[in-house]
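Box 4.2: Ligand-aware structure prediction
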Amino acid sequence: AKKSGRNTVLPYKQEYSSSLEKKIFLEEELRSAIRDEELMLYYQPIIDLSTEKIVGCEALLRWIDRAGKFVSPVDFIPVAEESGLIYELGNWINATAFKQLKLWQTLHTDMKYISVNVSPHQLQNADFVKDIQRLLDIHNVDPRHIQLEITEGTFLQESLNTQSQLRILGEMGFRLAIDDFGTGYSSLAYLKRFAVDVIKIDRSFVMDLEDDPADRDIVKAIIAMTTSLGFDTLVEGVETREQSLIVGALGCGYGQGYLYGKPTFADDYAEQYIGLKSV
Ligand code: C2E
Ligand code: CA
Ligand code: CA
Ligand code: CA
């Protein structure tokens, strides 16, 4: 790739000479993206498999840069985490989702909850509970209508801030979801200590479900285990009718994936899934 000088405007599709260079570039861009409000939340429906009704949705962060190009959260969330920007960003995500939930609930929809992703870095900050309480107050939202998606590993972290805040969030009434389940430590007994509501089974187990009997056995075992511990189960990344039928037959309660609906921006979501025209 051609080297650019400090004050040259970098082209968006540049190749970076190193991953460090890419990271530094992304971090600077992300700072200005937050400032210039280039970020938005998309929403993806979550389905009750027994009734096929939508019960809620997951908020997923999107960055559309000045050139109109989508930057994947898989690329920029880690950058936000390493730079500490994730804390401020996380508060913005929570505020935006709470405001959206309030609006949709006011319009008399039967949305039970909005699910937001919480990075382990956010929970290490001792102010997390205080800040999220303030946001609940500002937007007049009941924590029982907010689900926090937290990866397995976070629950096993020895950080006292994380441990105590996870407990307090459960006591406050937030719904707690274990995200990407099966990819990490898989200590279900440990999870029992927290007020966990639902286990989200990672997409990697669902992808080849039709053809791979081993995956089917794994999913079956996870559902049996989690159900016996009293957690609900949700499968992520359901793309085909057959996958949906298989996980339903295995006793899984909830599903999410392109089959039921792709993540989309708020107005589009309202129109497609809750029958509201441009609100
Ligand atoms: P995740 O939390 O596991 O989110 C699910 C990802 O799977 C999303 O990708 C979603 O668009 C995608 N997905 C949903 N259904 C299907 C399907 O049927 N097939 C396939 N192939 N993919 C499906 P997305 O939005 O690109 O997000 C990627 C990851 O970035 C998320 O994984 C999460 O770890 C992170 N992320 C996204 N938004 C946020 C956020 O607001 N905060 C934090 N901390 N992380 C976020
Ligand atoms: Ca998630
Ligand atoms: Ca997930
Ligand atoms: Ca994932």
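In the box above, the bound molecule is calcium ion. The CA atoms of residues 7 and 199 lie 48 Å apart.
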